Amino acid sequence: MMRVTRLGILALTFGCTLVSALICMVVTAYFIAPFGWTVMQVSLALSGSLPVFLGLPVFGYLAFKLKELSDTNERLVRLNQTDHLTGIFNRATFSAAAEAIIEKQAGDCGVLLIIDVDHFKQINDGFGHRAGDETLVAIAASLVEAVEGRNAVVGRLGGEEFGILLPALEVEMAPLISEHVRLAVETMKRPASIGDRIITASIGTAAFRGPAAFSRVFNRADEALYASKRGGRNRVTIAPDAGEPADSTARVGPVLERAS
Q1: Which of 13, 20, 193, 208 is the most exposed place for a label (fewest CB within 10 A)?
Q2: Which of the listed CATH numbers 3.40.50.1100, 1.25.10.10, 3.30.70.270, 1.10.10.60 matches domain 91-258?
Q3: What is the pairing mode between strands 153-158 and 256-258?
Q4: What residue spans define the domains of the chain?
């Protein structure tokens, strides 16, 4: 990229110099000789004509190159921040954004969800990796749609695992929004490559009141996720509040549990 840019600048400089020399030769040949113009008249003619002949093309070329460079930089930033398959945040970007929000959020409530697609290996083994990729893309789209308008941060944490951070959500809403996300995955429009295969997800949810340590909130949600898996999958488990006794468990619904 840098080499191409340097070559472009050298070519532009050489071209401008060549055009300037040609213009001077043309003016000398067609104006000084036939019309007997003085040096002062030629200088005035050149000072008026060179900016027109050279300025517009040069500035146009530079503007085009700057726009091209800006677009390239934007693409590189997007590639660095997003998951190449689904187009949502990758793990590093999601974690950095979530950490910044959770640890700087003064007194506000929020909810972190970790979503794991149930038996995803069976999809890859049974329908092929291309079908698996199409399924992941569809799941990512369903997650984004499920929390649209809630100022959510959505990312792919790796493989078939996703994360959602809702930074401005009351703790009491955690079970409702988590179940909404679970249903969004189960009822999403499935890619044709997997036929009528039903897709479900297990979810671990941790509510918090900022500022809080991101690692602790994440670990609570992760433990709740594994409780959902141990409990039969296709369900939501709400992590206990920080500092709550470990034995405080409550059945919230048929597929909605509170982790111990």
Answers
A1: 13
A2: 3.30.70.270
A3: unpaired
A4: 2-81, 91-258
Give the long-range contacts of residues 126-129, CB within 8 A, separation 24 or more.
Answer: 126/197, 127/193, 127/194, 127/195, 127/197, 128/193
| pLDDT, tens only, 79-122 | 467 999 999 999 999 999 999 999 887 667 899 999 999 999 99
Q: What is the pTM of this model?
A: 0.68
Would you say 19 and 51 are in contact if contact means Cβ atoms under 8 Å apart?
Answer: no
- Which residues form the catalytic set? 160
Interacting residues of 81 by C-beta distance below 8 A, sequence separation 6+:
89, 90, 93
What pLDDT, in 10s, does the model give residues 197-255?
999 999 999 999 878 899 999 999 999 999 999 999 999 999 997 655 333 233 343 44
Token look-up 């597929």 returns 255
Token pair 């179940």 is found at: 179
Residue with tokens 């992941």: 136
Extract the tokens encoding 139.
Answer: 């799941």
